[in-house]
Structures are given as C-alpha cells and as structure tokens.
Design goal:
By secondary structure, the protein is of the alpha/beta class. It has four domains: 164 residues, Molybdenum Cofactor Biosythetic Enzyme, Chain A (3-Layer(aba) Sandwich); 54 residues, Molybdopterin biosynthesis moea protein, domain 2 (Alpha-Beta Complex), CATH 3.90.105.10; 73 residues, Molybdopterin biosynthesis moeA protein, domain 3 (Beta Complex), CATH 2.170.190; 72 residues, MoeA, C-terminal, domain IV (Beta-clip, Beta Barrel), CATH 2.40.340.10. It is 17% helix and 31% strand. The protein contains six helices and 25 strands. Strand 8 and strand 9 form a beta hairpin. Helix 1 packs parallel to helix 6 and helix 4 packs across helix 5. The protein is elongated and about 95 Å long. The relative contact order is 0.13. Bound molecules: ligand LQZAQKY5 and molybdate ion. Ligand LQZAQKY5 binds next to helix 6. It is an enzyme of class 2 (transferase). Pathway: Cofactor biosynthesis; molybdopterin biosynthesis. GO terms for molecular function: metal ion binding; molybdopterin molybdotransferase activity.
C-alpha cells in the first residue's frame, strides 16, 4: 500500500478503477439533476413551423413597396391556429405572436406601425421581405444532437427536451453511498451528552453533501472504535457503490479503520494524502465497491470529500462535463502557519476592484466545523510556502455547493 501520496496521484489511482453506474429509462419530469446516459437528438424541427415573433400583420413585401402601403385584411391567425388561406399581394393577415406565417406572406410588420379601419390596414412603415419571421428549424433542426452523454440535467436542459416533445430519458441511476461515523465518543442528536462524548455531526454534513451530489444515501448508526463492530456495520452497506467512513483514520491505538477495511477484504490503495487538512485518508476497493476512510475531524472530512471523493462520485454518476478547476485569487487575509505540507484554506470570495479576493475563515483548525459556514473557497497553498501575506496571489477552487 502506498503511503503519503499527492492528491493528483490519489485521484488518478481511484478514477482509473471506478466505472460509471448502470443506466435506466425514466420520465422527463423525474429527470431533474440526473445525468444523461446517451447523446440525445431532436425528433423535430424547433420551431416546427415558421412563426411570427410579433403581434401585427403578415403580408407579401417587395423591395419597392409604396409608403404608406394599403392592404386588405383577409384572415386572422391567433397563436395555436393554422391558416391555409394564401396571402396575395395587396392582402394581409392579422397575426399574433407565436402564430404560423400564412402561405404567400414573407414578412410581419408590428401592430404599432399600422393603422386599421374595418377590413383595411395601412402599413405606415413597410418592411423588407423576410422581416420578423422566425424560420422553421431556426433554433433546432430535426436530427441535431441536443445534449451529449454525461450532461447534468439542469432545469433548462429538461426544458429543452420538453420543447422537442421528449417524455422519457435514459439516465445513469443514482450512485448509492453508505455513510458510517466511527468513534466511541460519538452520540446521536436527541439525547443529553454523557461525559467525554460529543454529538456526531459528520454523518449529517455528509448526508447533505451526498444528497446534493445526486446520490441515494444510507446512513449507518454510529459505530465504536472496535474492529468487530465496524465489520458488522460494513456488512450493512453491501448494496452501496461507495462507502464513506469518518474517524479512526490516523495512527492512534483506536484508529482501526484501514485495518478493518483490509480485514473486510479490501485491497488498500493508499493511506495518507500529502495535504492538510485531512491527511489521514485511506481508500480501499473490494470488487466494485470503493471505501473512503476520511479523518474524523469535521472540517478535514469535508475538505477531503471535496478534493477526493466528489470527483470520484462525478465519474461514478456518469458526469462528463469538466470540473471548474482553479483560478487566481488575491488574499484579503494573512495566514501564518503554512508549512511543509500543501494546505487548503477555507475562505469567502469578495469581489473588489474587478478582482476576486479571498477572505479567510477566522479559524482554520481541522476540527472547526463552523469555519465551513459561509466559506465557499478552498485556497490552495503549495507545500513549503511559508506565511501567506495579504495581497498575495494564490490559486483557489470554488465550491458552489457550500455557498450560503
Ligand atoms: N500522533 C498523531 N496523532 C494524530 C495525527 C498524527 O499524525 N499523529 N494526525 C492528526 C490528524 S492530522 C488528524 S486529521 C486526526 C485524524 O483523526 P482520525 O481520523 O483518527 O479521527 P478521530 O481521532 O476519530 O477524530 C478526530 C476528531 O474528530 C472528532 N470526530 C470524529 N468523528 C466525528 C463525528 N462523526 N462528528 C463530529 N466529530 C467527530 C473526534 O472526536 C476527534 O476530536 O488525527 C490527528 N492525530
Ligand atoms: O490532517 Mo489533519 O490536519 O488535522 O486534518
């Protein structure tokens, strides 16, 4: 087993091994935020017919129309109707926004530029041929690829499918993720704290982060620091694609998680990432299941979830759109403790003078969950950097899911 590796190597090891989950066909209305499992082509032209973008009059324009132009109104075409009456020269159809252009007409003039009396209309400002016509297939042609496999189905994507009449979509099933918090000091909420105990927050934070990432989450009740109890708990998540544990990841006598995983039958891929917070991460694989043992420290667990687990979940979920990556920020706060290891600091983006400034959370300790509230940047301080100064430029990642 490799020990103390760089984040990029860890990602490569796991991403190389993990496959996307199976696919299923579901109704469009259930497909919000699911991941498309195949390229989807349009079965129709959009719009399906040439239409008017205005309320006004459709007529047959020439390049030499007199001004004003007097026409006889021979039909009326509200949206949702279809008129077969051919418009000859000297004639007009009263037409409404979204209605089909009648045969023979080649333009629309807006209502405000006309005057009508009984069945006559005067076009005060005649328009040139082809004015104000939305052509058939102008937005989408039959056979066009609308979205590609791996696309995350946001509301506009679902709307686009609805616009071309799609009622079923082939998507990846939701990844199933088990969450297990270990630690003999942990108690669940809803009971008074006993001496030496703390409430389990990691299961709650992770459950929400996983729900947001589109996973089906199974939270297992708290487990003690005993290998036997941990093995018993791991049996309960046989259906999960990924299991995330927190606690018992480090070097203490009670830090049993990587031993428990090995005893459970996992091939251990590595232990420890060369970064802070969250150094003592290990990852194991048993068949198709991947086990992430994260630090019990709440902020460390969240940070390593973002850096390591989320990209893996994206691949598992079938997503193919690239991650946002890092961008430069200017430091609005200093940080004295940057040392030998690469470190990710938590902070908030502040827009000032056309630049993004990173304002650090007041406390950066691995155990300080409150530092995550309001933070949505992870500022990447390289190894051996020394103190971080105000005004210095560093790279950062935007964690959209943490925005408040
Ligand atoms: N001698 C050494 N000690 C430690 C080292 C080391 O290298 N040598 N590494 C430190 C670092 S860095 C970290 S990070 C932690 C990792 O500890 P574990 O993953 O073994 O986690 P625990 O000891 O179980 O817990 C750490 C901390 O977090 C609290 N905790 C645990 N689970 C939860 C939960 N579900 N909800 C809320 N809080 C939780 C726990 O009570 C501890 O206070 O090890 C250092 N030690
Ligand atoms: O790796 Mo640990 O720095 O305390 O989270």
């Amino acid at each position: 087993m490799k020990i103390m590796i760089e984040l990029e190597e860890a990602l490569e090891i796991v991403l190389d091994r993990i496959q996307s989950v199976e696919t299923e066909c579901i109704s469009l209305a259930d497909a919000y935020y699911r991941v498309l499992a195949q390229d989807v082509a349009s079965q129709i032209d959009m719009p399906p017919f040439a239409r008017s973008p205005l309320d006004g009059y459709a007529y047959r324009a020439t390049d030499a129309d007199p001004r004003p132009l007097r026409l006889k109104v021979v039909s009326e075409i509200p949206a949702g109707t279809f008129s077969e009456r051919v418009i000859d020269s000297g004639e007009a159809a009263k037409i409404f926004t979204g209605a089909p252009i009648p045969p023979g007409a080649n333009c629309v003039v807006r209502m405000e530029d006309t005057e009508s009396v009984s069945d006559k209309v005067t076009i005060l400002c005649p328009v040139s041929p082809d004015s104000n016509i939305v052509h058939k297939g102008e937005e989408i042609r039959e056979g066009d690829i609308l979205l590609k496999q791996g696309f995350h189905l946001t509301p506009p994507a679902i709307g686009l499918f609805a616009a071309v009449g799609l009622d079923q979509v082939n998507v990846y099933r939701r990844p199933r993720v088990g969450v297990l918090s270990t630690g003999s000091e942990l108690m669940d909420v809803g009971q008074p704290l006993n001496p030496g105990k703390i409430y389990n927050s990691n299961s709650y934070t992770l459950r929400g982060m996983l729900m947001e990432a589109g996973c089906d989450v199974q939270v297992i009740p708290i487990v003690s620091d005993q290998i036997e109890d941990t093995l018993e708990a791991l049996e309960k998540v046989a259906e999960a694609d990924v299991i995330i544990t927190t606690g018992g990841a480090s070097v203490g006598d009670y830090d049993i998680m990587r031993h428990a995983l090995a005893e459970f039958g996992c091939e251990m891929l590595f232990w420890k990432l060369n970064l802070k917070p969250g150094t003592p991460v290990s990852v194991g694989q048993k068949g198709k299941q991947f086990f992430f043992s994260l630090s019990g420290n709440p902020a460390a667990a969240m940070v390593t979830f973002e850096l390591l687990v989320r990209p893996v979940l994206r691949k598992l979920a079938g997503r193919s759109t690239p991650e946002e990556g890092e961008f430069p920020v200017k430091m609005a706060s200093s940080f004295g403790k940057a040392g030998k290891q690469r470190r990710f600091l938590r902070g908030q983006a502040v827009f000032k003078d056309g630049e993004i400034w990173a304002d650090l959370a007041l406390a950066q300790g691995s155990g300080i969950l409150r530092s995550m509230i309001g933070s949505h940047l992870l500022i990447d301080v390289p190894a051996n950097h020394g103190p971080v100064e105000v005004g210095e430029r560093l790279m950062a990642r935007w964690i959209a899911e943490w925005e408040s």
